[in-house]
Write a structure and sequence with these properties.
Elements (H helix, E strand, L loop, with lengths): L1 H16 L3 E2 L8 H9 L7 E2 L1 H6 L2 E3 L19 E3 L18 E3 L18 E3 L18 E3 L18 E3 L18 E3 L18 E3 L18 E3 L18 E3 L18 E3 L18 E3 L7 H10 L5 H4 L3 E7 L11 H8 L3 E7 L2 E4 L6 E5 L7 E5 L3 E3 L3 E8 L3 E10 L10 E2 L8 E2 L4 E5 L5 E9 L18 E2 L5 E2 L5 E5 L2 E5 L1
Parallel strand pairs: 3-4, 4-5, 5-6, 6-7, 7-8, 8-9, 9-10, 10-11, 11-12, 12-13, 13-14, 14-15, 15-16, 18-26
Antiparallel strand pairs: 1-2, 16-17, 18-20, 19-21, 21-25, 22-23, 22-26, 24-25, 27-28, 27-29, 29-30
Helix pairs in contact: 4-6
């Protein structure tokens, strides 16, 4: 008797689970959802039989302007649900316990309960308005993308099968991925994290952690890493010497003063713009085809060395020249300088050189080389200033000479840094193949040679001539007279005649 009763209960339960469902407004309130079901072969007659329900394992109602998916609970055999880009504010999948794939991204969901969907393998719920998400019951989860929501916390400690996690663009203040040792891709950029520990994630191949306020980042254990983006943080150093598989590195807008990529021989793309790098060597990066190092401090010999270290781009492999983004001409803080000669060298290695000009990245031909103009910190009995600290070949440089009272310029020289006393690089006030040209108000100009120069000057006491009508014989010995022949006291300053000789009293 008990066996008969159990059999009846099972039959009733089975009939309840697979009872026919009419496709009407009562069961499926949203007209667009109803139309979708009616357009399918299984629902063309307006009724979903138990056999048809059991056969429906995938539904794709993406971009159908659906505001309500009520009725989805009848489809209990459903394994794959795509409802992307609709107008959903709520979604109940608690009866869809067979679900292994759920894509409900790009809606207006404020909550999502997946606690009954324990078989769930992939969950894409990004670009909604979720403030919380509990995935502790979803231990089979391998791919989770919950980015672009309003999450303040996320616990993935139970999701040990996770291979891909994207929780970017939220308000997370901490993230513990120490239990996710199978993780291959982690994207957590644009959060409020101040630290990120990935030493347990040795399978990690892709890491995006830009703009999360990091002050340090240790990727020494992530030897499988192929892509790393740690831009827009507060890092002052970055060690990628153990990441020999690295193909793309983005470390821009941080505070690096040095960057060693000598061990990253597979590197193809490098973004390191807006740092404080004075030098960069890419000699070992033989696969490199894209380099953006603008907004740094690379110039002169260091730029020469960088250009020399560029590999020759294999155009047949890439289909085009390599891209060398080297200078931001719109930035007042740009200190990179690349000359026309250096650009020509880069082009000879199949690199196209770009500069930011009027908010547009354009091909850049380079600048004429500039050379420094050095002056002593001070001169004796006068001053000399230059209107510029550096100049290009042939550019006019103006020096302003100001002797102290009672002194005049004796000699003014402009010579190359090595001090060679002959040739076109030596300019003298008197003589020389390139003379200084006097101007008004103590100015002198010269044309900049192809080398750095130093400026030197000497001053001497002014010698007064042409003073007449002073009867020296009648003057008292030891008495001082001004140039008008009038007696002056010992405190008089200027040119005086004393004991028949002219003197300058300061």
């Amino acid at each position: 008797m008990k066996k008969v009763l159990l059999l009846l209960v099972a039959m009733v339960a089975s009939l309840s689970a697979w009872a026919d469902v009419t496709i009407n407004e009562t069961n499926f309130p949203d007209g667009n959802f109803r139309n979708y079901l009616l357009s399918e072969p299984s629902g063309s007659d307006g009724v979903l039989t138990d056999g048809e329900i059991a056969a429906i394992i995938t539904i794709d109602v993406s971009s159908n302007s659906i505001a309500d998916l009520t009725g989805i609970e009848h489809l209990t055999a459903l394994k794959n649900l795509y409802c992307i880009g609709n107008q959903l504010t709520a979604l109940d999948v608690s009866h869809n316990t067979a679900l292994i794939f759920l894509a409900c991204n790009n809606n207006q969901l404020t909550a999502l309960d997946v606690s009954q969907n324990t078989a769930l393998n992939k969950l894409y719920c990004y670009n909604n308005q979720l403030t919380a998400l509990d995935v502790c019951q979803n231990t089979a989860l391998k791919n989770l993308n919950c980015s672009d929501n309003q999450l303040t916390e996320l616990d993935v400690s139970h999701n040990t099968a996770l291979k891909t996690l994207d929780c970017s663009n939220n308000s997370l203040t901490e993230l513990d991925v120490s239990q996710n040792t199978a993780l291959e891709a982690l994207y957590c950029y644009n959060n409020q994290l101040t630290e990120l520990e990935v030493s347990q994630n040795t399978a990690l191949m892709r890491l995006g952690c830009s703009n999360i306020q990091l002050t340090e980042l240790d990727v020494s254990q992530n030897t499988a890493l192929e892509t790393l983006d740690c831009s827009d943080n507060q890092l002052t150093e970055l060690d990628v010497s153990q990441n020999t598989a690295l193909e793309m590195l983005r470390c821009s807008n941080i505070q690096l003063t040095e960057l060693d990529v000598s061990q990253n021989t597979a590197l193809e793309v490098l973004y390191c713009y807006n740092n404080q790098l004075a030098q960069l060597d890419v000699t070992q990066n033989i696969a490199l085809a894209y380099l953006d190092c603008s907004g740094n401090q690379i110039n002169g010999g260091n730029m020469e060395a960088l250009v020399a270290s560029l590999p020759t781009v294999d155009v047949d492999y890439w289909g085009e020249n390599g891209s060398f983004i080297v200078i931001d001409l719109d930035s007042e803080t740009e200190q990179n300088v690349i000359t026309t000669t250096q650009v020509a060298t880069a082009r000879g290695k199949n690199w196209t050189v770009y500069g930011l000009i009027d908010d547009d990245w354009q091909e850049y031909d380079g600048s004429e080389p500039t050379y420094t103009i050095s002056l002593p910190e001070s001169f004796e009995h006068g001053t000399v200033t230059s209107d510029k600290a550096a100049a290009s070949i042939g550019e006019t440089v103006t020096l302003t000479v100001t002797p102290d009272d009672g002194y005049e310029l004796e000699n003014l020289t402009v010579a190359t840094v090595d001090g060679e006393p002959s040739g076109a690089h030596v300019l003298r006030l008197r003589g020389g193949s390139l003379e200084l040209t006097p101007g008004e108000n103590g100015t002198y100009t010269f044309q900049m040679p192809a080398a750095p120069v130093t400026v030197n000057a000497t001053f001497k006491e002014t010698v007064v001539t042409g003073v007449e009508d002073i009867n020296v014989a009648t003057t008292k010995r030891g008495q001082r007279y001004n140039l008008m022949g009038q007696p002056v006291g010992n405190d008089y300053k200027g040119i005086v005649i004393e004991n028949g000789k002219k003197r300058v009293i300061k």
